Amino acid sequence: MLFSTLNKSISNGEDSPQTADTINSGLGQQKFLFIAGVFIGLIVGLVTVSYRLLLKLLEDLRFEVYDSIRDNFFIGILFFIVLIASGILIGKVVKLVPMIKGSGIPQIKGILLTEMSSNWLKETVLKYFLGLLSLGLGLSLGREGPSIQLGGNIGLGFSKLSKKLNVNKRVFITAGAGAGLSAAFNAPLAGVIFSLEELHKSFSPMVLLCVMIASAVADFVSAFICGFQPIFSFDELSILPFKYYYHILIIGVIAGILGKAFNRSLVFVNCKYGGFKKIPDIFKPVFPLILAGILGLVLPEVTGGGHELIESLTIKDYLFVTLVLFVIIKFLFTIFSYSSGAPGGIFLPLLVIGSLIGKLYGEVAVSVMGIEKEYILNFLVLAMAAYFTAIVKAPITGSILITEMTGSFKHLLPLLSICVITYIVVEFINSSAIYDNLLEIMLKRQKNNWTLNHSKGKILIEIPVCHGSEIEFKTIKDIAWPEGCLLVAIKRGEKEIIPNGDTKLYLGDFILIIADEKNAQSIKPKLTQLGEAQV
User: Fold this and answer.
1) I need a labelling partner for 309 at 20 to 30 A (CA). Which of 33, 205, 421, 516 fits?
2) 277 Cβ contact list (under 8 Å, min separation 6)
3) Alpha carbon distance 154, 138 (integer Å)
4) Cα dihedral 412, 423, 436, 326 sign
């Protein structure tokens, strides 16, 4: 077996040919990860941009079909037959390959936690085309979740090219996921922050380098093909005066409460409808697709991801009751669409609901509090960030994402403020992150072991040495390392050191450790505890 305990192999300074490739994988990381990041970002960028463009074509075609149905009854019959057949097809494929269901972000988190395994190529192809079908036919789902899973799978596929690359699997998956979000929303910084804040849960230099390069390259591909303009062009967005900052607190509280309501509702319906045995799994996507067809004829604004609805809020004056109706239907339709298991994310629908909440609050503030009408748009943007934060519990990502999507850093201060306030609110009311909840549900449904990770590969873990930690100023041989891991290198500034038993650890060092992938889940917390500051 490649692995031995540290007490036997490292603390005695042994260096066998058996571990040569492993040690080499811990050295020269910067150049290696730079090249890997460029390659992953390029491939993910091309895949994600093609996904965006094809989805836009399908959405335009869908609205043309809606118009045709109003003039021709038989086109309507044919369209609903297509919806039913597509729902059955989606249900059958998702039942056979459950890893493609939903947004894909819980699956990526599960793979990073070594709780799930993936047939990356098959899942990438199926997620791509069934995601286009689900979103193109009008389900209230977004492209960002599939884009993140597509990117993560491509990163996983890159790691499969050789054993040396596979050691860095978690880094490549994280980089690919960040690149997917970057290309989906023209938001490279958000791609970096989300992949580290929500997925990898680590800001180590090794991971940061690869993720930054991949996200930047993917964004370049997106900008080259789709243009440099932000996703939302809010040209008339004024700077919110300080005298109105108390509205940030109010909106943050409202978004936090409504965000918890969304999370609990999504989990409840996902468990009830997703686990409802009287309806076969292959038919579960049929009903939301039929509903999408009906809504497309009577209220087309709430179908699909909702990008057009957000933009319309900036130029149209909807009746207050219409905005309330939009919120309720979009809220319920998104939950129903996602719970069917159809491939698609909730990022964009969340932003739509948040923008509607902000628009409603702005209308009330103008009528009751007498503020200027021009600041309604500010409340719309702030509520988008707040609602996202309330549900995903990623405040840094929320503020950066909306900043990049609106194309202006002039509003970063109020965005950061409202995201922090909202995060405090959801912590106070004990609301958990939606993707953690969804991952937990998926793991509980492992009755047939379809997601269990049976991999016997190796994985590279990077642990920082913090001030006051148990291992600071200690030598390698004096540390009680967990069983089943092998220390291969220490990064100290620009230097990379091959350690022996007498090597001493200092504040700021990063320890590179190889572990068996199936044991990484139990080993990493023990290693992290060694490097953390002692309270």
Assistant:
1) 421
2) none
3) 27
4) negative
Higher-confidence position of 478 and 155: 155
CB atoms within 10 A of CB 328: 13
Residue 528 has pLDDT above 60, yes or no: yes
Query: CATH topology of 29-226 equal to that of 242-447?
Result: yes
Which residues contact residue 396 at a Cβ distance below 8 angstroms, ignoring those fewer than 6 apart? Answer: 193, 197, 419
CB contact at 8 A, 340 and 406 = no
> How much of the chain is in helix, strand and coil states, percent to nearest 5?
70, 5, 25
Q: Which residues pair with 514 in a beta bridge?
A: 460, 486
How far apart (Å, rounded) are the C-alpha atoms in residues 488 and 513? 6
What are the backbone angles phi and psi of residue 462, rounded to the nearest 5°? -115, 125
pLDDT of residue 228: 81
* Domain locations in the chain as residue ranges: 29-226, 242-447, 456-531
Lowest model confidence (mean pLDDT) among 59-63, 410-414, 511-515:
511-515
C-alpha span between 343 and 278 (Å, rounded): 22
CATH class of the domain at 456-531: alpha beta
Average pLDDT, the chain: 85
pLDDT of residue 5: 39
CATH 3.50.50.60 applies to domain 242-447: no
Most confident stretch, 28-37, 308-317, 327-336, 487-496: 327-336
- Can you name the residues that pair with 83 across neighbouring β-strands? none
Residue 86 CB partners (closer than 8 Å, separation 6+): 133, 137, 285, 289
pLDDT tens-digit series, residues 239-297: 889 999 999 999 999 999 999 999 999 999 988 887 777 888 899 999 999 999 999 99
In CATH, the architecture of 29-226 is: Orthogonal Bundle (1.10)
Supply the pLDDT for residue 471. 83
